[in-house]
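[Q] Does anyone have a clean structure-token version of this?
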Amino acid sequence: MAQINPSILSADFARLAEEAKAVEGADWLHVDVMDNHFVPNLTLGVPIVESLSRATDTPLDCHLMIEAPDRWAPQYVEAGAGSVTFHAEAAAAPVRLAREIRAKGARASMALKPATPVEPYEDLLPELDMLLIMTVEPGFGGQAFLDIMLPKIRRTRELISKHGLELWLQVDGGVSASTIERCAEAGADVFVAGSAVYGATDPAEAVRALRAQADGATASAAWACAH
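[A] Here you go.
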């Protein structure tokens, strides 16, 4: 079944606990951490993650768009994150970092910006629990989906199948009712949705509708039929 992770980047930051409760049917709550260095935006950090983890039963999926994730990522596990994503472009020792995140009890994930190819990281994939393919340039919510990322999603799914991995494939950026089916057909099974959820009249219903769309597209996708 497809997993839908609403992004609190599109939520009301003054009401984060309420906004988390509004999507309690979601699989994960996606938390975008930005440092104004790796990306040109500043959002939130460890104290907010700690507070959120106490305010919701939905597990936290922290996406670290920050420099020096080797230093900071373990602190997000300690703060309560169930999954921590670091960027390949920022990590000094990605294998060591993934193993440290796992050792602390969270799922280890690595993200790739649109211009970063997946192929150089093929041998590293078994060290991960999830790979995130960015379908916009990281840094801001509300951007338009980049269709040119669909072949990259397909190639990543092929690598996952080639090695027989139980690796989740997440997409983040411009995911909505008009794009989620294409992502699922290409091979994604975890979907970050910000504006499409928090911009809806009923965020919980938006989560259910997106999941149904993704499940429908996955059911007829070649990669899923061959799995």
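[Q] Thanks! Anything notable?
[A] The mean pLDDT is 97.
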